[in-house]
Specification:
The protein contains 6 helices and 15 strands. With 247 residues, it is of the alpha+beta class. The protein binds D-MYO-inositol-1-phosphate and calcium ion (2 copies).
Length: 247
C-alpha cells in the first residue's frame, strides 16, 4: 500500500489539535503483534494502548505515527518510531521517515545510520551559524508560553528555528546534520526514545533543558550536535527554571 492510500479518518484526543487516525491504531497493533511474536516476554510502552507489563529488562517504546497532524494533512514529515530499551536506556532504535522513505537506525555503541550509510552530526560551532528545530505540545499552558518565548529568542540569534511537527524526525535531522539543535517541552517517552539514541550515536549530545541527564520519562529535551549544547543551555536552563512541574 502507498503512503497516500493509508486511512486518514481522524478523531481528537486531549484537544482539537491532538489527533489520532485509524492508521495510528492499526500500525501500533501490527508492530506490537510482531514484537510479541518474536519476543513474548518483553515489555511494551506504546502511545495508543499504553503499557504491556513484563518482568523483562527489555521494553519496546513505540510511537506508531509521530507527526499525525502532518499525516492527516498530507504534509511531510511523519514517522514510525521504535526503540528497544534495556534497563531504561535505549539499546537500539529505528525511525522510518515518511513519505521520504528514509530508514534511520542506531545501536548503542555501534553508530547511527540512514539507509545503510553512517550518519554524523553537523560541525556548526555557534548558534549564530545554526539551524534549530523545536516543537510544541498540545496543552497551551505555561510550558507552551515558555517555549514560544524560547522560539523568539533563538530565532533572533540563529539562522532560524523550524517547527516541523514530528519530534522523531527532528531528532533524525540533528543526527544526520541537517539541523544543529532541537529542543522541546512536553514530550512523551515514545516521542524521544528512538531519536535520542540516533543523536548520541551520531556524535551529538542529549540532556534535559536544565543540563541534567535526560531520561525518556522527562518531558524537556535538548539535543544538539554537541558544539552548541552549552550555548543553548544558557537560554534553556533559565527558561525551564521559570516554570514549575516541567519535568
Ligand atoms: C507530536 C509530534 C510533535 C511534537 C509533539 C508530539 P504525535 O507527536 O512529535 O512534533 O511537537 O509534542 O506529541 O502526537 O504526532 O505522535
Ligand atoms: Ca509523537
Ligand atoms: Ca503518535
Amino acid at each position: 500500500m502507498q503512503v497516500q492510500d493509508l486511512d486518514r479518518e481522524v478523531s481528537t484526543k486531549s484537544s482539537i489539535a491532538d489527533l489520532v487516525t485509524n492508521t495510528d491504531k492499526q500500525a501500533e497493533q501490527t508492530i506490537k503483534e510482531d514484537i510479541l511474536t518474536n519476543f513474548p516476554d518483553h515489555g511494551i510502552l506504546a502511545e495508543e494502548s499504553g503499557v504491556t507489563a513484563s518482568d523483562s529488562a527489555y521494553q519496546w517504546v513505540i510511537d506508531p505515527l509521530d507527526g499525525t497532524t502532518n499525516f492527516v494533512h498530507g504534509l511531510a514529515p511523519f514517522c514510525v518510531s521504535i526503540a528497544l530499551m534495556k534497563d531504561n536506556e535505549p539499546l537500539l532504535s529505528v525511525v522510518s521517515e515518511l513519505p521520504a522513505g528514509n530508514l534511520f537506525w542506531a545501536v548503542r555503541d555501534e553508530g547511527a545510520y540512514c539507509n545503510g550509510e553512517p550518519i554524523h552530526v553537523a560541525t556548526t560551532k555557534t548558534i549564530a551559524d545554526a539551524l534549530l528545530i523545536t516543537g510544541f505540545a498540545y496543552d497551551h499552558d505555561a510550558k507552551w508560553e515558555t517555549n514560544m518565548n524560547l522560539f523568539k529568542e533563538f530565532t533572533h540569534v540563529s539562522h532560524g528555528v523550524r517547527r516541523l511537527g514530528s519530534a522523531a524526525a527532528d531528532l533524525c535531522y540533528v543526527a544526520c546534520g541537517k539541523a544543529d539543535g532541537f529542543w522541546e517541552i512536553g514530550l512523551h517517552p515514545w516521542d524521544s526514545a528512538a531519536g535520542i539514541l540516533l543523536v548520541k550515536e551520531s556524535g551529538g549530545k542529549v540532556s534535559r533543558l536544565d543540563g541534567k541527564v535526560f531520561s525518556i520519562h522527562d518531558q524537556q529535551l535538548l539535543a544538539t550536535n554537541g558544539h552548541l549544547h552549552q550555548e543553548m543551555l544558557e537560554k534553556t536552563a533559565p527558561a525551564i527554571a521559570s516554570i514549575a512541574g516541567s519535568d
